[in-house]
Design a protein that fits this description.
Order of helices and strands: HHEHEHEHHEHEHEEH
Strand order of the largest sheet: 1-7-6-2-5-3-4
CATH topology: Glycerol-3-phosphate (1)-acyltransferase
Shape: globular
Oligomer: single chain
Distance between the termini: 18 Å
Number of domains: 1
CATH architecture: 3-Layer(aba) Sandwich
Structural class: alpha/beta
Radius of gyration: 18 Å
Low-confidence stretches: none
Helix content: 40-55%
């Protein structure tokens, strides 16, 4: 009972942490967007978000709520040049674990978040790309990749659905960007022992702790000569399925076998 109550207390504190830091960084980001030249605004925004995410991960670890294997991301952070980093989207906070280690990534995210006055200031300061329309998002992402920047984009388009075996069918955005820019796609494979904050998970529902999360990075995947966008997307999907379905302690389980 003591452990149960303690975990509920920590869950509440974690949600409080996000409420306080999200609003603080958003308000600070909105102000700095007006005050700083774009070059310095981008540096400041990415620094603020990385440190916020790193502190959150650190607190989860020392509290015993999280066991995280993410060494592969540290090697990814050292990679230079334009690339599309493409993780499968297990849960609401996947972006936190990736950006905590690879802060230079420009994230593609919902336009509604970017427009939210209590959430979007930090993302705007960091130069993240909103999805207001697919055409606009692809144009902005293409510009960044052509300039040598690195994009974080979830190829599923949304969090993996509850009834999906390994992941949702991939959307065509990542493949189309790869064809238009000829930059490599870096598959990132996220596995977890829980479905905490998956699509449809209630905000205040407590999972079984500790959360165990493993993040691996695949080999760069490039468009082959003459390969269509559809064929490339299908090849990418096969790569994800082959990896995520392989034997692993944290391989995704069917819903009825989990909490």
């Amino acid at each position: 009972m003591i452990k149960y109550c303690w975990e509920w207390c920590l869950l509440f504190l974690g949600l409080l942490y996000w409420a306080v830091t999200a609003i603080s960084i958003s308000l600070t980001g909105t102000l700095l967007c007006w005050l700083l030249p774009q070059k310095y605004a981008l540096l400041c925004g990415r620094f603020l978000l990385q440190k916020d995410f790193q502190l959150f991960v650190f607190l989860l670890k020392i509290s015993g709520l999280l066991i995280l294997e993410d060494d592969a991301l540290k090697a990814l952070a050292a990679r230079k040049g334009a690339m599309i980093v493409a993780p499968n989207h297990v849960a609401l906070w996947d972006i936190v674990f990736v950006v905590a280690q690879v802060p230079e990534l420009i994230c593609v995210m919902k336009g509604s978040i970017m427009r939210n006055p209590f959430l979007g200031g930090g993302a705007r300061l960091a130069g993240y790309i909103p999805i207001n329309s697919i055409t606009q998002m692809l144009r902005l992402a293409k510009q960044q990749l052509k300039a040598g920047e690195q994009i974080l984009m979830f190829p599923e388009g949304t969090r993996t659905k509850t009834d999906a075996q390994w992941l949702n069918p991939l959307k065509g955005g990542v493949a189309l960007l790869a064809k238009q820019t000829q930059v490599p796609v870096i598959p990132v494979f996220i596995r977890s022992n829980t479905r905490f904050y998956e699509k449809g998970w209630p905000l205040y529902k407590k999972p079984e702790f500790p959360l165990k999360i493993s993040i691996d990075v695949g080999e760069p995947v490039r468009l082959e000569k003459g390969e269509s966008v559809q064929a490339f997307a299908q090849r990418l999907e096969r790569i994800y399925i082959a990896e995520l379905s392989s034997p692993h302690p944290l391989r995704r389980k069917q819903k009825h076998n989990h909490e």
